[in-house]
Amino acid sequence: MVFKLTRTVYHAWSKLTPRVLLADGMRRRSFDAGRKLSSNCCHLDCSSAKRIVDKYDTILLDCDGVIWGTDHVSRMDKVNEALYKLRQHGKQLLFVTNNSLHSTNTFFDKFVQYGFDINHDEIFCINSAAAFYLKSVLGVKKSVYVIGSEAMGTELQNLKIDHFGIGPEPDSTSRKIDDLLDMHFRDDVEAVLVGFDEYLCYNKLYKASSYLQDPDCHFIVTSDVEMGTKIGLNRYRPSVGAVVGAVSAAAHPRKYTVVGKPSSFLYKFIKLKFPELNLNKILTIGDSLKSDIKFAKNIGSDSALVLSGASDMQTLLNTPDGDKPNYYFQNLALFAEVL
Ligand SMILES: [Mg+2]
User: Fold this and answer.
1) Which is more confident, 28 or 47?
2) Which parts of the sequence bind substrate (predicted)?
């Protein structure tokens, strides 16, 4: 539970860290101190950040676009120092991610690689939450058809949930009805779980929608708000929302249940490990208005948007006041400067 990043480690890491790297190519922009977007959305700056953060005991931190770039690789300037100082000021830091491509162990390894010495219990990975939801909330005992990642399989395996479907589709593609009817289907499927899957194909849509013909087969998805990211000139990478949209359309009119942000289930999942959490003392920080800030509003915590990932200033300006966060600021480096 103790953040053991030493100054020596931090300085060694800092020397290796390139200049601030924002995944969408944005460069740092300066904002007027105390700039207020609406009656309930204030800019955090050097003069206000410490006073504001002192109001909270716990900070729920999104990862992609906050701790590192939205590409899950690019490093953010001064994040190590910011986290170190937040911990030094007694803040409990919990890391909550909707990224379904990685397991809790993978995230842990990444934090360690970045110089953060943290506890597994402080990482809340969507794949782990989805496995828990299937096992403990829905009581799934038989099998789960998965359109998702290897990491999703890892978390299901950790809870001893039988599953199949991950990876390349084994059956040959065909549009002939006889071929489709000849494909093998299991009769013990209690749920269809959908996350990001780069192997999504027609056969997988066929199988998922077929299993979901059974009204007792649960339809669970990790997230449906992350639609994609621009990765280059005229290049847009569809994300989990696009996969969920395709499966949902194929399985129409079945409705799915979202386990990840902005669903409040994720907070209940966190509370199981930290029952002492007090919503009045929680600040949720993220880079997505639809995911992180909406999540904060759903659970009833205050929220802050960083402009270092999925959302830019124009997006925030275009957002209705009721959907705006309590605070916004450029990136976590602010806390390295003011604490
Ligand atoms: Mg994010």
Assistant:
1) 47
2) 261
